[in-house]
Amino acid sequence: xxxxxxxxxxxxxxxxxxxxxxxxxxxxxxxxxxxxxxxxxxxxxxxxxxxxxxxxxxxxxxxxxxxxxxxxxxxxxxxxxxxxxxxxxxxxxxxxxxxxxxxxxxxxxxxxxxxxxxxxxxxxxxxxxxxxxxxxxxxxxxxxxxxxxxxx
Length: 152
Ligand code: FES
Fold this sequence. Notes:
Layout: H1 2-9, H2 19-30, H3 35-45, H4 49-58, E1 70-75, H5 78-82, H6 85-96, E2 109-114, E3 126-128, E4 131-133, H7 138-149
Parallel strand pairs: 1-2
Antiparallel strand pairs: 1-3, 3-4
Helix pairs in contact: 1-2, 3-4, 6-7
Bound molecules: FE2/S2 (inorganic) cluster.
FE2/S2 (inorganic) cluster (FES) binds at residues 75, 77-80, 116-117, 119-120, 123, 125.
């Protein structure tokens, strides 16, 4: 990670105004902003760690925990909710042994809930990475998760 961070940070030494850009690049490269990166970013941009963390934590797009290889998002918008979205979320939580906002121990999956994907006609919807899975049932959700579990 140190080498990756060094390469990202090198062009921005002392450039406080580049903080957001640097945070975006670090997250794109590592998938999240680890604590060690906060420290190195602060050093590089001549800022304090609390300043860097303060800015990074202001924006919902930055993550501070390592994410799973696959991001599962289960819709809880109105259309999905009335068509059983909560059941789908329960199924995924039970199958993976995690709650919303958590990542499985093997870092295979991270689970989130969202308000609406804009695909209400397909409700209830579960999105894995960029794949939209519509008209979900608990059985279908388990099968899909199982298919991902067998990929490497
Ligand atoms: S409410 Fe789920 S896609 Fe719109």
